[in-house]
Known about the structure:
By secondary structure, the protein is an alpha/beta fold. The chain folds into 2 domains: 3-149, TIM Barrel (Alpha-Beta Barrel), CATH 3.20.20.70; 163-193 and 237-309, no CATH class. 43% of the residues lie in helices and 10% in strands. It has 13 helices and 8 strands. A 5-stranded parallel β-sheet has the order 1-2-3-4-5. Helix 2 links the parallel strand 1 and strand 2 (48-52). Mean pLDDT is 93; it is low at 302-311.
Amino acid sequence: xxxxxxxxxxxxxxxxxxxxxxxxxxxxxxxxxxxxxxxxxxxxxxxxxxxxxxxxxxxxxxxxxxxxxxxxxxxxxxxxxxxxxxxxxxxxxxxxxxxxxxxxxxxxxxxxxxxxxxxxxxxxxxxxxxxxxxxxxxxxxxxxxxxxxxxxxxxxxxxxxxxxxxxxxxxxxxxxxxxxxxxxxxxxxxxxxxxxxxxxxxxxxxxxxxxxxxxxxxxxxxxxxxxxxxxxxxxxxxxxxxxxxxxxxxxxxxxxxxxxxxxxxxxxxxxxxxxxxxxxxxxxxxxxxxxxxxxxxxxxxxxxxxxxxxx
Length: 311
Ligand SMILES: C[S@@+](CC[C@H](N)C(=O)[O-])C[C@H]1O[C@@H](n2cnc3c(N)ncnc32)[C@H](O)[C@@H]1O
């Protein structure tokens, strides 16, 4: 990400009092101007946070981040030992030393000057059984908390065997059921975590891994300008959302298809609807209109996009 783009992205966050999150589709610590970029955030008095695998987090960088007032650091550590190497192709002991150094520098600071320290675990096939053990391990070390995330297929960029990817089946039924239960079809991620790529383009969210749909430039649009553009993109059938297992309609469709295949009980559908409803109730502003599509006219393009997914 060039300096010009980075500065503009920070300005966009500052103008709407948002937290700058250094994360997304890459590893911020690889950037050759990492230290300068942190100084720029400090000069702009912006709140900031970092998500990292910690491989390049030297104690000097930890000290700099803490001196710069980092609000929150999230370490992405979904595995242990040999599995860690297998999944990340990084050295577990090096990561542990770096995390330890960060926590120790953090703990030496007065309580009001400390950052939050979170561990992000993405549940996947290899680590599923070890999640309680890993959570307990990190909690015992005094982290602020451990998030366990469901694995997102990154707008279809990760190959998965989801049934919903194979056809457009159950879309109409899922949408009708959601409407009857007051569950919106609008995904929250695009709005709660706006995403700017290294090239200065906004994308629907960080799960448009293949950057299939640039939505506009950070020099031309503010973060809030993008809200209606993102809704329009989703309405038209954003290609990443159509293939995404986090998209609410696909979440419900997948449960329905699993029931059809005899792999899940019907309760799974209501469970998924319940989870979505709870999540949406936490964001009343975004979900004040459940039938958000009613705001739009224009032709929908869903079928064409879903057929493209099948190849
Ligand atoms: C993609 S990483 C990028 C930032 C940095 N390189 C890192 O490793 O933290 C950002 C966050 O997404 C999480 N993540 C990675 N793959 C994911 C997936 N398939 N589904 C959901 N979350 C994922 C990571 O655990 C991390 O917390």
